[in-house]
Amino acid sequence: MILVTGATGTTGSALVDTLLARGLPVTAVTRDPRRVTPRPGLTVTTSIGPADALYLLSPAGPAIPEHDLTTLRAAIDAGIRRVVKLSAIGTPSRPAAAEELGAWHQPGEEAVRTSGLEWTILRPTTFATNSLVWAEDIRAGRPITNIFGDGAQGIVDPADIAEVAAEALTTAGHHGRTYTLTGPELLTVPDQVAQLGEALGRQLTTVDVEPRREHFPPEIADVALAGAHLVRRGGNAVVTDDAERVLGRKPGTYRAWAEANRARF
Ligand SMILES: NC(=O)c1ccc[n+]([C@@H]2O[C@H](COP(=O)([O-])OP(=O)(O)OC[C@H]3O[C@@H](n4cnc5c(N)ncnc54)[C@H](OP(=O)(O)O)[C@@H]3O)[C@@H](O)[C@H]2O)c1
């Protein structure tokens, strides 16, 4: 049995689909079981209980350390032996100041590494699904706000993160590994928007805007602003072959994600 936290979210829902498609029993953890559609092989719970392995996901924000530590403690108490933690690219291995980029996931990573469980840490870069926030502007015919300038990123498809997680949760050889997960190529926001426009059959434009606190919800503004400036100066222009080494194939392109997700824009 694999326990999936964040099962209604971006990577968690893809992971549930992946595990069920492999015929593996899954328990989805959610605060609201009514949000999970019943399926053969799937059980739903609101709390951590006995299982073979845990996908540890905490919702983005400053509460990540507390959520990670509470969930991990419950998993150890329940006798779970293996954990795969979703972290983020650039998370430092040393303690970080609270407002520092990378501070959200560092305590959870450290707790996982010292838990005594079999562990794998996944550090994905920016998700392809983040571009769904452009949908409203696209529908309204407005230019897409670009706070990242010409900073490029190795945009990753969350379905590939889920497949790597499924491998680490269910097969041998991933204990003690930290995988930095990216897509196959570096793309700027204008690159992404051009590919999305081709997928949608529309001419889309961007407008370059200096990132400001007001662009983000107040509780994440410090970290998000630091992240935006990092991307702008080219600090997240990273492509790795970690996903390819685990999956035995190239990770998906942003173009393929855009074509498969046309209906969501
Ligand atoms: N987006 C990116 O580009 C990116 C890049 C690198 C790393 N990450 C990391 O990915 C993780 C997930 O981010 P996401 O934005 O894509 O989230 P998400 O996985 O779409 O959704 C968050 C999930 O957390 C669950 N949850 C449990 N307690 C919650 C609470 N108190 N408040 C809100 N949700 C709660 C929700 O489940 P229920 O509502 O069913 O309970 C939901 O399924 C974060 O740790 C983030 O740092 C994201």
Write the layout of secondary structure elements.
Layout: E1 2-5, H1 10-21, E2 26-29, E3 42-45, E4 53-56, H2 64-77, E5 82-86, H3 106-113, E6 118-124, H4 135-140, E7 144-146, H5 158-170, E8 177-181, H6 189-200, E9 206-208, H7 221-232, H8 242-247, H9 254-260
Helix pairs in contact: 1-5, 2-3, 6-9
Bound molecules: NADP nicotinamide-adenine-dinucleotide phosphate.
Domain NAD(P)-binding: 6-170
InterPro entries: Ergot_Alk_Oxidoreductase, NAD(P)-bd_dom, NAD(P)-bd_dom_sf
Protein name: NmrA family transcriptional regulator
Provide structural commentary.
The chain has 265 residues and is α/β, with parallel strands linked by helices. The protein has a single domain (2-264), classed as Rossmann fold (3-Layer(aba) Sandwich). Helices cover 34% and strands 15% of the residues. It contains 9 helices and 9 strands. It has a 7-stranded parallel sheet, with helices on both faces. It has a two-stranded parallel ribbon with strand order 7-9. The two termini are 35 Å apart. Bound molecules: NADP nicotinamide-adenine-dinucleotide phosphate (NAP). Residues 6, 8-12, 30-32, 35, 57-60, 64, 86, 88, 104, 124, 126-127, 130 line the site of NADP nicotinamide-adenine-dinucleotide phosphate. NADP nicotinamide-adenine-dinucleotide phosphate binds at residues 6, 8-12, 30-32, 35, 57-60, 64, 86, 88, 104, 124, 126-127, 130. It comes from Paractinoplanes deccanensis. Residues 6-170 form the NAD(P)-binding domain. This is NmrA family transcriptional regulator.
